[in-house]
Write a structure and sequence with these properties.
The protein is α/β, with parallel strands linked by helices. The protein folds into two domains: 2-189, TIM Barrel, CATH 3.20.20.10; 205-319, Lyase, Ornithine Decarboxylase, Chain A, domain 1 (Beta Barrel), CATH 2.40.37. The protein has ten helices and 18 strands. The strands form three sheets. Strands 7-6-5-4-3-2-1-8 form an eight-stranded parallel β-sheet. Strands 9, 10, 13, 14, 15, 16, 17 and 18 form an eight-stranded antiparallel β-sheet that branches. Helix 7 links the parallel strand 6 (125-127) and strand 7.
């Protein structure tokens, strides 16, 4: 299995997640976005196989080799950069089977193989990526494209050690197409793009109440007088804002949990602070625990719930949590 811990482990903390998994599963691979993330893991003592899925600058290829970091080659330009490097790391070839992001297309396979053979290069791995794993028809067409390309490699005598294709949804929907390894991404953190599959979210995001005040009916709240109070209100100020990853789009409609009850955001979310309405929540005081994502009392707020309010996905909500926020494994 490759545990996808790219982009700061989907907001959960790159190093913390890597250390937790590497202790329990010594053979697990880690998928990262960049050489920067990979080097950070090596600096922290992580020895598991690392694959950089994004683009690696030519000047950092020798560093990748020195640190035993595997890179992705997904274009002829990238291959040219790789060939110019005096010291070359192991590499995986990325195939574009229909998503049209990274990767060599089917029409590129024969000229790619010719170049690899001429230079006596053998990729350590070959992989692709599902564009819409919930769509059986299109996904099957991607699998067929991938199989055709693999067949060309095999007939040419190029047999990569590791072939991988499936991500979280694919593992469930296309369990036969596991090849040598699967890449577990959002599912690792307890989320799934479809509601029919229920997982337990790993992350709980908390803050505290930093101030409480009473404000009279008719007064305005936040920048540009975003919201006017319709009643005498008690407001709690939270030391969290869009700099921390609490999206500005949650202004006047986001919710948090305080003392086991829902508290609505009042006015505009600011850079470092957010105001919420606690008029109907008795006893709220400074330093009370506030749950942004997670469960408190009988209520729960998930990243999916937050995403629905601002028309995005749980991926974005989670990955935008500021990396400087302290992560605690419990």
């Amino acid at each position: 299995m490759m545990a996808m811990i790219k982009s700061n482990a989907y907001g959960h903390g790159l190093v913390a997640i890597a250390k937790l998994l590497s202790k329990k599963y010594r053979g697990v691979w880690f998928g990262v976005d960049s050489i920067t993330e990979a080097v950070r893991l090596r600096d922290e003592g992580i020895q598991n196989p690392l694959l950089v899925l994004g683009y690696t600058l030519p000047r950092r290829l020798s560093e990748s080799a020195r640190e035993h970091i595997i890179v992705t080659i997904s274009s002829f330009d990238g291959l040219d950069d790789f060939l110019r490097s005096k010291v070359r790391p192991q590499f995986h070839i990325k195939l574009d089977t229909g998503m049209h992001r990274q990767g060599f297309q089917e029409k590129d396979i024969l000229p790619l193989i010719e170049r690899l053979q001429k230079l006596r290069l053998v990729p350590d791995g070959v992989y692709s990526h599902l564009a819409e794993a919930s769509h059986a028809g299109f996904s099957k067409s991607q699998v067929r494209s991938f199989e055709r390309s693999l067949g060309i490699f095999q007939r040419a005598g190029i047999r990569p050690r590791v072939v991988h294709f499936n991500k979280t949804e694919g593992i469930i929907n296309f369990s036969k197409n596991t090849y040598d390894m699967v890449r577990l991404g959002i599912g690792l953190y307890g989320y799934y793009p479809e509601k029919r599959v229920r997982l337990k979210p790993v992350l709980i995001w908390k803050t505290i109440v930093s101030e409480v005040k009473r404000v009279e009916k008719g007064e305005w709240v936040s920048y540009d007088r975003t919201e006017r109070l319709k009643r005498d209100s008690k407001i709690a100020i939270l030391p969290i804002g869009y700099w921390h990853g609490f999206d500005r789009g949650l202004s006047s409609k986001g919710e948090v949990l305080i003392r086991g009850k829902r508290a609505r955001v009042l006015g505009r979310v600011t850079m470092d602070m957010t105001m919420v309405d606690v008029t109907d929540i008795p006893g709220v005081r400074i330093r009370d625990e506030v749950v942004i994502i997670g469960k408190q009392g009988k209520y729960r707020i998930t990243a999916d719930d937050v995403a629905e309010k601002i028309n995005t996905t749980s991926y974005e909500i989670l990955t935008r949590i500021n990396p400087l926020i302290r992560k605690v494994a419990v």
